[in-house]
Amino acid sequence: MMKQSSPNERRTAIHLLRSGRTPAQAAAEMQRSLAWVYKWRTRFFAQENWNDLQDRSRAPQHSPKRLPEQVRQAIRQARSALEAEADEPEKLSYIGAPAVRARLRKEGVEPLPSISSIERELRAAGMTRPRKPTQPEDVIYPHLQPTAAQQLVQVDIVTHYLPRGPCVACFNAIDVFSRYPTGQQFPSRRSIDASNFLIQVWQELGIPQFTQVDNEACFSGGFSHPAVLGKVLRLALFVGTELVFSPVRHPQSNGSVERFHQDYDRHVWHKFELPDLAAVHRHSPGFFDAFRHSEHHSALNGRSPVQVHFDQPGLPLSTDLRLIKRLPLTAGRVHFMRRVNQEKQISLLNLDWDVPKAQPDQGVWATLEFSRHGALLRVFDAAPDAPKRICLASHPFPIKEPVQPLRPEFHRPVPIEPSHPSLAASLFRFVLKSRIPAWVSTML
Q: Model's pTM, two decimal places?
């Protein structure tokens, strides 16, 4: 097998030939074959261009998979049209390869190119922008990995200010798998606003297995009372969804709704003049409807969120549900994604909890489970849908009120979480081990 040569070696061979040596002499001095010398002599002396001594692409000049010229032109034209529409009111601003492909499909372009072919053509035409490199995270938190719609919905708030100063709290929610969104705008961010918005979410999207929120007071119940069980937590338990609190100051864990905030801001707050809350209410619904029917989502393989989300029947919340002043505690689970501090503790619901088996700066998953036997907090190294996980700590959680069973209309037929020991058995083992009769009397 002939060894590879460098451009420097080829230039040396040409220098030898131009100095008067014969091809055979040059081959001997370079310890190369005569054919090698003839090859580079022919290539150089054809135009006497030193660049001809560089390696050439071995790709065939006529690729059988190359897109027809009319398709390549259609790709560039579709991208250009999407860019022009991006700043127009009532138009979506998506210009990536999935959005281009959706436009080509609607225009009947044949053969319809793949996403990778479109990206290749856009790069060749200089119509793309380099992606910003992502920074590695200092803490890796366990997280859910939904495989179907109505398993995980993320909810969050983005704040804006009207021209004369009033604040608008824009509540947004999105199904992580189907990308189906909803939203509502309020003049405040109280727990009653958060509760009313969650009711809207569950009525429109169905009651998901998990509903993820951040740690704002309107969701968590505030930061002053130890072991606080706030309005939103009680509401989630009441309807049978498992509330998930994101890590503190870690928006990446709520990434789907954080990205949706950016889309919402760009299409509503950056495109329209919004002098008052009524204008916000007037212009927001059009964007939500367009987003639900758009086929620009790369993860949905050319389908729209509305097509994916309602593929299978869900568990919608009745429109008759009304909030009462204080909801009872209902059997169910609430989850927390937390960081272990240097004292090997985590903080949740305004209390610190020991996790002796964890490491400092480890991301963990804590589950607080309520049943008629009481409440138990367990800390794991992985999320509930992980195939294997280890329990790192177990603690009784203080409650002073009874826990009612989940109402039949909220029962989910097939849970997606793996089976685990019952709460009653876990509590019984804990009592035997700790021997704290006083604690037993407060829990029963």
A: 0.71
